[in-house]
Amino acid sequence: MAQKRDYYEVLGVDKKADDEAIKKAYRKLALENHPDRNPGNAEAEKRFKEAAEAYAVLSDAAKRQRYDQFGHAGVDGPQGGGGGFQSAEDIFAAFGDMFGGGGGGFFEQFFGGGGGRRGRGRRGASLKVDLELTLEDVATGVKKTIELKRPEPCAHCSGSGAKPGTKRRDCKTCNGHGQVVRQQGFFQLRQVCPSCSGQGSTIDDPCPKCQGRGAIAKEAPITLTIPAGIESGHTERIAGQGEPGDGGGPPGDLVVVLHVKDHDVYTRYGDDLLMQTRITFRQAVAGDEIEIPTITGETVAMKIPPGTQPGEKLRVRNHGLKHPDGYGRGNLVVQVQVDVPKKITAEQEELLRKFDEIDGKKTGKKGKKTIFEKVKDIFS
What we know:
By secondary structure, the chain is of the alpha+beta class. It has four domains: about 5-110, Helix Hairpins, CATH 1.10.287; about 125-260, Heat shock protein DnaJ, cysteine-rich domain (Chaperone, DNAj Protein, Chain A, Ribbon); about 260-340, Urease metallochaperone UreE, N-terminal domain (HSP40/DNAj peptide-binding domain), CATH 2.60.260.20; about 345-380, no CATH class. It contains eleven helices and 15 strands.
């Protein structure tokens, strides 16, 4: 049998931690590792169970005293009344009171329900949409409309699923709780009621318009305001824009994941933009001022210092992307590539040689390659 970890270590608290610190630590771990947030993740479910078992002991004064004195031996087994939960469903039900009671409340708000509550249907599922943006969209901010096809509450039955003039009734199998309890050894296992699928109620006379589903698929355009400077992969959660709940339960959320397309000219580095431009050999040597296009479609003047080297990066301040918080913006970084003509006329070659001769006289350097030869070496 695998050795259990120390419960204080599991929750990440000191042995002198008070009840509030223990509760806060468990709450954080439960949210991070809840199965609804980590579908199919066995490690997350294991951590979820482990944290719940630790909280079950450390939140109970008598159990905590036995654990501090005797370790796991003091709380394991039927006398100890310690951990040993069989499933995440059991943990969810056992500690629902901590987050609002009855498996609903706090967990229901984050995970779309889990176990019915008398008189209330299940929360609707959340929807996920991927939205593609251009770098120009990110530079200025943009409004995007998503044509979303989703179930909408049936107007004929007000989303109840029951024929107008009739009502849903409490499920006879679970007495309206949405869960049934099964005894297994020392443990009570809570499972979703098979008769009402966890809703806690059933329908005798279904609505003829939605066939008892409580919803009808409709086109639902959603307009989003995307702020400037948003990062690719950013997620927006729009409350109440997901699928409607079952049996009149609250709707889920709409989750929009933003993806920024690569640009042909600019490469993004945080809030800075990098681009390349080509200049002539004369401009690199003597300096110049040229016009550079920006991501917003405008042009800006950029000075090329005399003696600019191939590959050198020049900075145009405040012409990158806006900071996501709305304050300030990044820079436009321009990498310079020097154009060296592959063919030159005799007159041009003669002028370059004269340039070398003059430069050699000024510097007094001899026996070294001329600038004409250096340029040829660099770009050959």
